[in-house]
Every structure is written in structure tokens, then in C-alpha cells.
Amino acid sequence: MHISTVHQPFDQRIFYRECASLAAAGYETHLLVPLPVTELERQGVQLHSVGVPAEQQLALGLKRRWRRVWQAAQLARQLRADLYHLHDPELIPLGLWLKATTRARVVFDSHENNTAYLRQKYYLHPLVRGPLLVSMEALERLAARVFDAIITADRGVADLYLRRFRARRVITIHNFPHLDLFLQQPPPADDAPFDLVFHGTFPRYNLEVTFAVAEALRRRGRRARWHFFGKCFETEWAQAEIARRGLRDDIVIDAQMVPHDQVAARVRQAKIGFIPLPDLPKFQHNIPTKLFEFMALGMPVVLSDLPPSRPFAGDGRCAIMVPPHDYDAYADAIIRLLDDPALRRAMGAEGRRRVIHEYNWQREAQYLFALYHELL
Length: 376
What we know:
It contains 15 helices and 14 strands. By secondary structure, it is α/β, with parallel strands linked by helices.
């Protein structure tokens, strides 16, 4: 049984990668998650509602969050699973309770460096953020010592659990792409309508870098067409900033989530994948999933030079990595790729080759199956 009280019901990692794969492998799989209906079945997974989906805002949603945790606890005991797979830090107390009162196995899936992510929430008052950080570390330390396994999405977070929290068992299961979703699409055409693309969730810091790079291109007498699609937290600010900087002809923001099976076709409408991550604590440990999606589509990538991505793209054969806040370096990398279609094709082909042979979900899912086989 998988449980999340904050993620959307069809989350890429929770539902499409883990739950759907486990159900296809023959496991009876249930997912407790916010849903607009009481329950439903999809791809062999039984979904049960712990509340109606809504925007998650800490300041406004604490009461609702804990109400969902309570509902999840009731359903968890009612359905009596052999293994509980938790996806949110606030579910750790629930996992400790289940571990103490049942014979079930309990696993915590840490999607990111939770303490680093909390540190960069600068809108929280220090008197609030401080106690939250202490509580988060205490909960993660307990989970590491008590639960049957900790799962992470990258090795940086796995190292934190091993070194800082002395975890009993840690396994890394990356968010690599499904081959069947991305390999059906050919690489982008040389006349693709956009030059660069960024998809998924894009907060203000991604857009601020993009605006600065677009202006750096203009100073060189160059312009590029950018396509952002997915979830934008500050659409009004972004559109106003685009107008203020005179970038309306350069940057298109489509603030709509795209269905899972349509993402690849939308991404390949651009020639180059773009990942402008700032040098924040969270990104010192987490790998950007879209890196591998761009590679799977045969696209070269321009991205920030941060430690988690270097083992996969640091040799420069499928991506160009630049210092996170060096906007001129971003511009130079973009111009280099736009001016050399043969280089784009060569780097894209190398990225796709790596995904086909190593960085794909079909291979990564085997680690999940092995863990479940061992625990059950």
C-alpha cells in the first residue's frame, strides 16, 4: 500500500512508475491519495481518497494536511496491508504507529532532500522554520532507524541517510523515464517551432534565469524561442515580467499540466532541453528528472553545473553544463548548439543511447521489485 496526502493522484513517481509497475508485476497495489471521488481503479491500482485534491500551501493547509493523515491512518488499518510505502515526511509518525501496532513492513520513499528544501522556503518566519527543521531531522532519523527500508530518488539523498541518520537500509531508485513513452517519438526536427523547452513545475527562480539568459542572447544580437509548459506558481508575475523586458516574442508560457502520455510529443517541439537550476541546497543532492527525458528524446541539454547531474552528463557528450548563475555561459552554450545542427544530433544520439542502455525505468524498476520480494 502506497500512501501520500500531498501529492496529486497520478504523480509521475508514485503512480506511473512505482504503483503501476508493481500492479503489472502481480502485486495487489493500493494507493491512498487525495482524490475527487471515494475510490477508483486505474492500471490495476486501487486508489482510495484521503481528501479532495487542492493546492498545497503550508500556511493555509496545515489543518487539512493533518486531517488527511488521520484519514490515511483509518484506511491503512482498515485495508490491512503487508507493506506500507510512505511518500511524505508528515507520514513518518503514521509509519511509526503502523510499525508498532502491526506486523507489516514499512518503507519511506524520500523524494528529495527534505531539510534542504525546507531551508530554502524563505517565506517562512525563522521562528517557524527553525522548529520545523528540528522536527524534520528528528522524524527522518527515526524513520532511518525504525523502518524496514528508506528509498531515495538519487544517491546524494541516500548518502545523507547513511551518514547523518545511520539508516538501516537505503536503496536508490532513480526517476528514469519509461522507454515506451519516449522512444516512440523521433528526435526534434531542425525546423522545430521552439529553440528551447522547460517542462514540469517552474517556480520563479527558473524563470528569472531564463529572462536573464534571453537578455544575454539579445546583447549578442541573437534571439531564441522558449517554450515553458506545466505548473507555474506565479503566472501573472511571469507574464508581467516578460512584457516589461520586451520578451513577448521570445518566451511562451503554457501554465497547464499536460497528460502523462502527451509530455514527450510536446517536449520535442523544441531543439534543446533547458534546465536552469540555481545553486541552492536542495539541488546539491537532487537530480533533475527532465534531464533523462530530454536525453530519451534525442535532445541535447543545456543545464546548470551541479554535482548530482555530473555523473550522467558531465563529460559534455550529451549536454553542456554551465555555472548556475553565469548567464553569458548559458547564452554561449545555446548559440553553439543552435548554430550547429550536426552537433545537436550527435549529442542527442549519445543521450538517447545512454537512456536505452542504462538510464531507464525498465531497468530501475527491478530494484523496486527486488526490495519488495525481499521484504514480503
